[in-house]
Design goal:
Helix content is 18%, strand content 22%. The protein has a four-stranded antiparallel β-sheet with strand order 2-3-1-4. A hairpin with a 4-residue loop joins strand 2 and strand 3.
């Protein structure tokens, strides 16, 4: 999850957002630029409501950047995956079928 803070956000407001994200179980990475601070929240709980953070003082916008089953979807590997299986079935008599 990405949390973009307002240009005018105070250090106290930024710290309150960081503390809240940590309470929810996120690992927070902070990036402070010349005009804006951006927080990256790693470990988004599946049912997390971004609105909880969006309404906090100093927050400009919040973007959820993960989706369930991301590694299994076409957005991660658009060319698809081929799985080759080599199987031999034996009958009760021990013969291959």
């Amino acid at each position: 999850m990405i949390v973009a803070m307002q240009d005018s956000a105070s250090e106290d407001q930024i710290q309150q957002v960081i503390d809240r994200l940590v309470q929810f179980g996120f690992e927070v990475h902070r990036s402070t630029g010349a005009h804006q601070t951006v927080l990256g929240g790693v470990g988004v709980p599946r049912d997390f409501d971004t609105g909880v953070v969006e309404i906090m003082p100093g927050v400009q916008e919040v973007h959820r950047i993960t989706s369930p089953y991301k590694l299994a979807g076409r957005s991660f590997r658009p060319e698809g995956t081929v799985v080759s299986l080599q199987m031999a079935l034996k009958s009760a008599a021990g013969k291959l079928s």
